């Protein structure tokens, strides 16, 4: 039987996502109890990270260990990949030594190629194109707090051309909700379909929204554009005035790290910190759900 992968959310089956959520909820409820399952016992998983990470790295390392496995962290400078070895050769070597791979890198094509040549379960832990683990966690968190996401209105404020914007757009089609992107000209999400709306007005996007969502204005690799991005993004902040446009009781989420006073105010972030840090914690539980789904 061919091994399963989580490489992105474009075309990812709804049934698989729902299965991951069911398993994540179970792992969350049973964490630290005798009932907690250990399906990775005897396995070693490689974490290959070319980009820095807090939540993704910690959630996968802890998740793998709590599921009975061992994790092997490899930065690009630790292995020959950092000296120019083709990704397909690295994949073919590691595929004979480890049981799965979690990859955080720049090019989506590298993750896809690793999965093809490594022939072991492979997880996209962030590329410049997508961040599927984060958006699955975001949807899991929304449904945990507000019920089914189908038919809801999600307002994404800020840089919609980033990996988070693409993953939210793909997820909207799969889960059946509407995502409204409010972004400056030149920062629009490149993914368009019937569940995606584009606007340059944050107030229009937020009006009647069930969830306000944002990400950093300066993604990793975009530091050289900092000055221009800060200028362009200044009107695209989640603040009290924008929150007032949303549906009463609207959820506010942020995938973190958060830069207070830029994409979100200190006031709004702290008022919704309980939900935002529940969202961060849920990375662990959903990551476990992903791993469990991959190996069953």
The succession of helices and strands, N to C, reads HEHEHEHEHEHEEHEHHEHH
Helix content: 40-55%
Distance between the termini: 11 Å
Topology-level CATH name of the largest domain: Rossmann fold
CATH class of the largest domain equals Alpha Beta
Low-confidence stretches: none
User: Average pLDDT across residues?
Assistant: 96
Q: How large a portion of the residues is in β-strands, by DSSP E? A: 5-15%
Summarize the main sheet. Answer: 5 strands, parallel
Strand line-up across the major sheet: 7-6-5-8-9
Rg calc: 19 Å
**Helix/strand class:** alpha/beta
Which term fits the overall shape?
Answer: globular
CATH homology superfamily name of the largest domain? Aspartate/ornithine carbamoyltransferase
Q: Helical segment tally?
A: 11
Notes on the structure:
The protein has 296 residues and is an alpha/beta fold. It folds into two domains: 38-130, Rossmann fold (3-Layer(aba) Sandwich), CATH 3.40.50.1370; 134-280, 3-Layer(aba) Sandwich (Rossmann fold). The chain has eleven helices and nine strands. The strands form two sheets. It has a five-stranded parallel sheet with strand order 7-6-5-8-9. It has a four-stranded parallel sheet with strand order 2-1-3-4, with helices on both faces. Helix 4 (108-118) links the parallel strand 3 and strand 4. Helix 1 (14-30) packs across helix 11 and helix 2 packs across helix 11. The mean pLDDT is 96.
């Amino acid at each position: 039987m061919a091994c399963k992968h989580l490489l992105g959310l474009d075309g990812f089956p709804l049934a698989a996502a729902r299965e991951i959520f069911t398993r994540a909820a179970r792992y969350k409820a049973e964490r630290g109890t005798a009932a907690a399952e250990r399906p990775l016992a005897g396995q070693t998983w490689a974490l290959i990270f070319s980009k820095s990470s807090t939540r993704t790295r910690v959630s996968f390392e802890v998740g793998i260990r709590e599921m009975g496995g061992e994790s092997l962290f490899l930065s690009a400078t630790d292995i020959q990949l950092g000296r120019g070895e083709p990704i397909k050769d690295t994949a073919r070597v590691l595929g004979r030594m480890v049981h799965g791979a979690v990859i955080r890198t720049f090019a989506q094509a590298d993750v896809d190629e690793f999965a093809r040549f490594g022939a072991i379960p492979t997880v996209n832990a962030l590329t410049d194109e997508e961040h599927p683990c984060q958006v699955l966690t975001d949807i899991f968190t929304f449904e945990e707090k507000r019920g089914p996401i189908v038919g809801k209105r999600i307002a994404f404020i800020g840089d919609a051309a980033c990996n988070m914007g693409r993953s939210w757009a793909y997820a909207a089609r799969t889960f059946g909700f509407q995502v409204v992107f409010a972004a400056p000209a030149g920062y629009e999400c490149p993914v368009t379909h019937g569940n995606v709306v584009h606007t340059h007005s944050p107030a229009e996007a937020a009006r009647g929204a069930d969830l306000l969502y944002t990400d950093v204005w300066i993604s990793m690799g975009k530091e050289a554009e900092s000055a221009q991005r800060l200028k362009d993004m200044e009107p695209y902040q989640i603040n009290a005035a924008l929150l007032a446009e949303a549906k009463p009781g609207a959820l506010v989420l942020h995938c973190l790290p958060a830069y207070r006073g830029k994409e979100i105010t200190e006031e709004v972030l702290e008022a919704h910190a309980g939900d935002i840090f529940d969202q961060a914690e849920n990375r662990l539980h959903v990551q476990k759900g992903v791993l469990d789904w991959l190996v069953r």
